[in-house]
Design brief:
alpha/beta, Rossmann fold
Length: 117
C-alpha cells in the first residue's frame, strides 16, 4: 500500500522559528513559507490539510494586516484547510479576538488560536 504524505504548511518569516517548525511536527512533511506569495504557491501545489500562520508577515511584520490577508486568501482558495494562528506576545490581543477575524473566517472551519512564546 502506498503511503501518502500529509503536508503541513508553516507560514513564518523568522528563520530560527522556521528551523524549529521543520522538525517539531512528527508525521507531517513540513513546508515553509516566509511570506504570503510563498504560502499561496505552496498551498496550491501541495494542498496541505493544516497551516500554521504567523500574523506578523512582511511587508508588515510588526502588524497583522498581511497575516490576516494571507488567512483570507487561504480560506478563499481552500476553505477546508485547518489554520492554526501562531503569534508572538505582542499580537496576543489580535489572536484572542475572534471579532477581528469574523470578516475573513468561515464557520465551516474549526480554529485554534495559539500564542507562540
Amino acid at each position: 500500500m502506498k503511503e501518502t504524505k500529509r503536508y503541513l504548511l508553516a507560514v513564518e518569516d523568522d528563520p530560527g522559528l522556521q528551523s524549529q517548525l521543520r522538525w517539531c511536527f512528527d508525521g507531517y512533511k513540513v513546508l515553509i513559507a516566509g511570506n504570503r506569495e510563498e504560502a499561496i504557491t505552496r498551498l496550491r501545489r501541495y494542498e496541505p490539510g493544516v497551516v500554521t500562520l504567523d500574523l506578523g508577515l512582511p511587508p508588515d511584520p510588526g502588524g497583522v494586516t498581511e497575516g490576516l490577508a494571507t488567512l483570507q486568501e487561504i480560506l478563499s482558495l481552500a476553505p477546508e484547510t485547518k489554520v492554526i494562528v501562531v503569534t508572538g506576545d505582542n499580537d496576543r490581543a489580535n489572536a484572542s479576538r475572534p471579532s477581528a477575524w469574523e470578516p475573513t473566517i468561515s464557520t465551516r472551519n474549526r480554529w485554534i488560536r495559539s500564542c507562540w512564546h
